[in-house]
């Protein structure tokens, strides 16, 4: 690994003489300085336009056609067809008054029209402002007003959200264009609100009648304002330039050149993570650069497997929860095998893992094991997967190793934020030493850690631990209309992520905690809630958990979503019957969950004040609809407290009564 990472500066004391900065690490591809940019590819628009010239007849965007209410096979638009559509839609937008720098919203689930709208913004120097498909109406309303959006491309299912009588933002919109068709009723409602409304085909026709040449942006022009929901407060508008995205693409090119397995025009990406998030957006940008294909899920997140079997993608990117479910599904299937076949599977797993740990590629570690057992795992994902990528949150080492061995494909983790234009670090394929880490710095990134004294993290120890700080070509320029928050997170040129990392002497990064999710108990002890949730989350009876405490209490409590399968087994063994909601009311189940949590605390050598003293059982997952988590499933702690305040107060009263 030392061949891939370089330390460019030793650790040192901060300017105030108190806060310490750890060593600064870069990719070995940037040993002396960052590689020069590609002069032909300085903007997102150039990335796409060059591919249109090189691969005009390649399949670019795919979607499933609905026949009699059922999703059929994938249909495709070529790069040339997409470009022509971009030209017509962009021409129509110009005719409706859009000018360079105008903010254009895109509101809806992933689909070809989403990407066409994005490329229209790129090609006509407009600023793309994605509106989270999963955000509630209040957040969408805020973003439209805050970004001063005049024009919105919108999915048919979301039109009603924009035309709500109480939608304040609707008063400033000039135009909405539906991805598909608009009803006469919707057009009437838009007209009453003073908004011009068009269907997709109507707008294309307008563009054909009013052709307008593209207006190419400059590298330092704003490409997108991408709002992040955050875990508290109003959404923050992350300003990313065309240069940020162009450097990301260039850096990934240089990174991929290191490996024998190359990406080709025949690769197919399955897109289901929201395009309004940086992870999916940047991966699609890279696929477009390579002339490869992107196929979209048909809109039902619970039927993704059907899309996988139909599309047969070569790349799957997902958040850890998705891979956790894949892992759980495989383990459940194993439990249904007879003991002999299960034993053979486990023997083959250990055999292949051993060869992979000794340095063999997953392809050659044990072709026999792949043929006898693991090809069935690959078949679950469509049968052609070559690479799986996990991002958005740390994935457990157990699940990562399992999928590296059984998936018959490369499997890597990465780390990045909207503010860093996605990939900040990335693992190397087939390097088992990186399991459980998020890899090493990307090509145009520098990373160091800063001391967090209140949490006991010191970057000048071995291993180095502290808040992850990033600088480089892909780091954002600031938060839109929020200079105070920008100054708070960008200091001395370093973006302070708020994540706590552990850096090995070789420059390998591991995410271990979150800076802001700490609080002090009444006895003065600091508690890292996210760290504890990670520890307690491995308890088999726990599906999800939120740990709570405050400076007025001496004890921790938690809201626990019990694992359904383990809860059913417990109920059967103890003679209880009923639905999940009924079982969660049982004191006996609460006592059982509490004992299991305390056992996990003991096994992980947690300190006494880190033990959970009381639990509230919840049968419903923490969800976006109730505003308890962000679209990327990060817990909104203030909202969780508000939601469970009554139960928490009652639980503390009960616990204090037992003293």
Structure description:
With 659 residues, this protein is α/β, with parallel strands linked by helices. 36% of the residues lie in helices and 24% in strands. The protein is built from 21 helices and 31 strands. The strands form seven sheets. The protein has a nine-stranded mixed β-sheet, sandwiched between helices. Strands 1, 4, 21, 22, 24, 25 and 26 form a seven-stranded antiparallel β-sheet that branches. Strand 17 (387-390), helix 15 (397-406) and strand 18 (410-417) form a beta-alpha-beta unit. Helix 2 (79-95) crosses helix 3 (112-123) and helix 2 packs across helix 7. The longest helix is centred in the C-terminal third of the chain and has 22 residues, at 637-658. The protein is globular and about 75 Å long.
């Amino acid at each position: 690994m030392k061949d891939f990472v370089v330390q460019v500066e030793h650790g040192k004391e901060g300017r105030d003489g108190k806060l310490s900065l750890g060593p600064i690490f870069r990719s070995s591809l940037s040993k002396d300085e960052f590689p020069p940019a590609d002069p032909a590819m300085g903007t997102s628009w150039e990335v796409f336009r060059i591919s249109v010239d090189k691969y005009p007849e390649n399949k670019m965007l795919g979607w499933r056609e609905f026949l009699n209410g059922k999703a059929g096979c994938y249909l495709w638009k070529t790069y040339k067809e997409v470009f022509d559509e971009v030209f017509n839609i962009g021409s129509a937008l110009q005719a409706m008054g859009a000018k360079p720098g105008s903010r254009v919203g895109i509101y809806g689930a992933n689909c070809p029209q989403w990407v066409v709208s994005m490329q229209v913004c790129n090609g006509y120097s407009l600023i793309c402002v994605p509106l989270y498909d999963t955000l509630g109406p209040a957040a969408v309303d805020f973003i439209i007003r805050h970004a001063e959006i005049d024009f919105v491309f919108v999915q048919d299912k979301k039109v009603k959200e924009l035309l709500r009588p109480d939608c304040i933002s609707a008063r400033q919109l000039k135009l909405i264009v539906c991805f598909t068709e608009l009803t006469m009723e919707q057009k009437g409602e838009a007209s009453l609100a003073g908004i011009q409304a068009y269907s997709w085909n109507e707008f294309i026709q307008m563009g054909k009648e009013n052709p307008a040449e593209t207006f190419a942006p400059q590298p330092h022009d704003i490409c997108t304002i991408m709002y992040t929901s955050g875990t508290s407060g109003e959404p923050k508008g992350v300003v990313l330039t065309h240069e940020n995205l162009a450097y990301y693409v260039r850096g990934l090119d240089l990174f991929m050149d290191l490996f024998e397995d190359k990406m080709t025009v025949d690769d197919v990406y399955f897109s289901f993570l929201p395009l309004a998030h940086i992870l999916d957006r940047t991966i699609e940008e890279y696929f477009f650069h390579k002339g490869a294909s992107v196929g979209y899920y048909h809109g039902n997140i619970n039927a993704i497997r059907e899309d996988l079997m139909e599309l047969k993608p070569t790349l799957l990117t997902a958040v850890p929860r998705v891979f956790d479910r894949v892992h759980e599904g495989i383990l459940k299937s194993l439990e249904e095998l007879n003991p002999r076949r299960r034993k053979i599977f486990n023997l083959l797993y250990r055999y292949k893992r051993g060869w992979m740990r000794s340095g063999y590629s997953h392809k050659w570690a044990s072709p026999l094991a792949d043929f006898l057992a693991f090809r069935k795992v690959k078949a679950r994902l469509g049968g052609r997967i070559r690479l799986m990528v996990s991002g958005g949150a740390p994935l457990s080492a157990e699940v990562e190793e399992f999928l590296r061995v059984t998936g018959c494909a490369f499997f890597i983790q990465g780390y990045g934020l909207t503010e860093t234009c996605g990939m900040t670090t990335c693992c190397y394929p087939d390097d088992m030493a990186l399991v459980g880490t998020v890899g090493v710095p990307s090509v145009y990134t520098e990373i160091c850690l800063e001391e967090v004294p209140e949490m006991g993290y010191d970057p000048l120890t071995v291993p180095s631990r502290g808040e992850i700080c990033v600088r480089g070509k892909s780091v954002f320029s600031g938060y839109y209309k929020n200079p105070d928050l920008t100054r708070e997170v960008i200091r001395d040129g370093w973006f302070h992520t708020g994540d706590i990392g552990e850096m090995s002497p070789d420059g390998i990064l591991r995410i271990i905690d979150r800076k802001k999710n700490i609080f002090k108990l009444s006895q003065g002890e600091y508690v890292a809630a996210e760290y504890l949730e990670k520890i307690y989350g491995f308890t088999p009876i726990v599906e999800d958990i939120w740990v709570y405490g405050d400076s007025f209490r001496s004890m921790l409590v938690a809201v626990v979503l019990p694992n359904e399968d383990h809860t059913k087994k417990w109920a059967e063994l103890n003679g209880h019957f009923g639905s999940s909601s009924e079982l969660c009311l049982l004191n006996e189940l609460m006592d059982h969950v509490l004992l299991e949590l305390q056992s996990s605390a003991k096994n992980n050598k947690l300190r006494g004040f880190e033990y959970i003293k009381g639990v509230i059982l919840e049968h419903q997952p923490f969800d976006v609809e109730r505003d308890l988590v962000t679209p990327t499933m990060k817990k909104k702690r203030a909202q969780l407290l508000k939601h469970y305040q009554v139960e928490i107060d009652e639980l503390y009263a009960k616990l204090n009564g037992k003293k």
